[in-house]
């Protein structure tokens, strides 16, 4: 037998041993997935006397009862976690000693319940994370078996109601914009889309400003920027609005929706603060200078440059 054949046989034998070991360990400790094909329309997270409720309304998820949109990525992570619960191991049953060991006692645990049309479809009682931080000890669907689950569920479900509030107030499809208008003081200007269905957007100037030639690329870029409103943070509803209104903005869509944004400023120079209200939310918010500037646009910034006319 040649040296090459001996080497190949040795490698084959080693691979066979590895496959056998993997087969044995896989059979001993297979990953089991507790699944539901239903998508919840409500998720509650209870810790002690505190309960956070996330619910869906008009195809959007809200957190709490005050009309705050929930952050989309956080909700998607929660839905995935309750729809596919991956069980790595069974480590024991509920009892006084194990409750303390795995932090499943009432004062330490967090209970997640997902429901659809008022019927519970999944529940997880979350204990402590494993030493690696990538698994979680928990009880599932009201049973007494203590399971080791894949994922850090304390991180997924551990955010406060304030943390879960989305900082995106509204989003509109760019091609759905019919017109946008800015009012600053006595000056009002806007852009209106005159393109017919299927045509490239064509923006014309409106308002009480001198007629100028609009750069279509600059106009489209500005429309893209006002198609959404991301805020810096939510502030108390009792916050008094400053007397100086910096800008009023209006966005009208082809589908008949109108969104209004008013931004007020106070302070001077580097200490300026920008406070906003919008028809898209019941709550007040503050904005950075950068976020404010797109709603306080000067029409002169959109005109065709002199060198481009040559």
Report on this model:
The chain has 310 residues and is α+β, with helices and mostly antiparallel strands. Helices cover 22% and strands 39% of the residues. It has seven helices and 20 strands. It has helices at residues 3-28, 72-83, 96-101, 153-156, 216-226, 289-293, 306-309, and strands spanning 32-35, 42-47, 50-57, 60-63, 68-69, 84-93, 110-116, 119-129, 135-140, 145-150, 168-171, 177-184, 187-193, 203-207, 228-230, 233-234, 245-253, 258-266, 273-278, 285-287. The chain has a ten-stranded antiparallel sheet, covered by helices on one side. It has an eight-stranded antiparallel sheet with strand order 14-13-12-17-18-19-20-16. A two-stranded antiparallel sheet has the order 11-15. A hairpin with a 5-residue loop joins strand 8 and strand 9 (135-140). 22% of the residues are buried. Residues 17-28 have low confidence and may be disordered.
Query: What is the gyration radius calculated from CA atoms?
Result: 29 Å
Order of helices and strands: HEEEEEHEHEEEEHEEEEHEEEEEEHH
Give start-end ranges of low-pLDDT stretches. 17-28
Strand element count: 20
Oligomer: single chain
Helix content: 10-25%
Shape: elongated
Number of helices: 7
User: Which percent band covers the strand fraction?
Assistant: 35-45%
Gist of the model:
The chain has helices at residues 3-28, 72-83, 96-101, 153-156, 216-226, 289-293, 306-309, and strands at residues 32-35, 42-47, 50-57, 60-63, 68-69, 84-93, 110-116, 119-129, 135-140, 145-150, 168-171, 177-184, 187-193, 203-207, 228-230, 233-234, 245-253, 258-266, 273-278, 285-287. With 310 residues, the protein is an alpha+beta fold.
